[in-house]
Write a structure and sequence with these properties.
Helices cover 49% and strands 14% of the residues. It has 9 helices and 7 strands. The longest helix is centred in the C-terminal third of the chain and has 20 residues. It starts with a strand and ends with a strand.
Length: 199
C-alpha cells in the first residue's frame, strides 16, 4: 500500500519535537498486513488553490501501477490569510477529489485544526466547505476543528508552541499532533484503509 499525504506544514509535523506529527502517530497505531509506503508531501504555507495545482504530478509519480494507492488531503489554515473565499475553497477541494476519483485513487480529507492566530470564523467556513465536498461524494472527512475548539490540552499546546506557519498562525506541538492523530484514527481511518488498530 502506498499512501500519499498532501498539504502544508501540518502534514509534515512541523513543531513536533518528536518529529512524528499526526501522520506518524496514525501510521504507528495502525496494523497493516504489509509495511506501507507513507509519503507526506508538504509545502509550507500552501493554500487549497496551490495544492490543487500541484498535487497530481507529485502523487502520480509515487503510485504503484496496479497497487493499492491512497491519497490523504490535509487541509491547513493558509486559505485564511490568503483571502480565499469559501466558494473558491469548495471549488479547489472539489477539483482535487474529483480528479483523484477519475484516477481511481481512494481519498480521505482531514480538515483544518483551530490554529491560534487564524480567524476562527473563516476556519469554520473552510472546514464546513471541505466537509460538504466530501459528503456529496461519500468521501471520508475528519473534522478536526470542532472537537479541538476550546479543548483544554489543545489550548495549552497552542500557548506553549513557538512553531508558526508561513502565515504566522501557531502550529501544534507534541500534544496537539497527538490529538489530531486520535481524531483521525477515530473518524474513519481504519475503515477507509481496511485495517485495524495496532495494540
Amino acid at each position: 500500500m502506498r499512501i500519499c499525504i498532501v498539504g502544508d506544514e501540518l502534514v509534515a509535523g512541523v513543531g513536533d519535537p518528536r518529529g512524528l506529527g499526526w501522520v506518524g502517530r496514525a501510521v504507528a497505531r495502525t496494523q497493516f498486513p504489509e509495511p506501507p509506503v507513507v509519503m507526506p508531501l508538504a509545502v509550507p504555507g500552501e493554500d487549497t488553490g496551490a495544492l490543487a495545482g500541484r498535487w497530481e504530478s507529485e502523487v502520480t509519480a509515487r503510485l504503484a501501477q496496479g497497487g493499492d494507492n491512497r491519497l490523504v488531503v490535509g487541509v491547513g489554515a493558509a486559505d485564511v490569510p490568503a483571502g480565499i473565499s469559501t466558494p473558491r475553497t469548495r471549488l479547489n477541494m472539489a477539483n482535487i477529489v474529483d480528479r483523484a476519483a477519475n484516477l481511481r485513487i481512494p481519498t480521505m480529507v482531514v480538515g483544518p485544526p483551530p490554529l491560534a492566530g487564524a480567524d476562527r470564523n473563516h476556519l469554520r467556513s473552510l472546514s464546513r466547505a471541505c466537509a460538504e465536498v466530501c459528503e456529496r461524494r461519500h468521501i471520508p472527512f475528519v473534522d478536526v476543528l470542532a472537537p479541538l475548539v476550546g479543548h483544554e490540552q489543545w489550548t495549552e499546546d497552542m500557548t506553549a508552541s513557538t512553531a508558526r506557519t508561513v502565515g504566522g498562525a501557531t502550529l501544534p506541538g507534541q500534544a496537539g499532533y497527538a490529538l489530531i492523530a486520535w481524531l483521525v484514527l477515530h473518524q474513519g481511518w481504519h475503515e477507509w484503509l481496511g485495517t485495524g488498530p495496532r495494540e
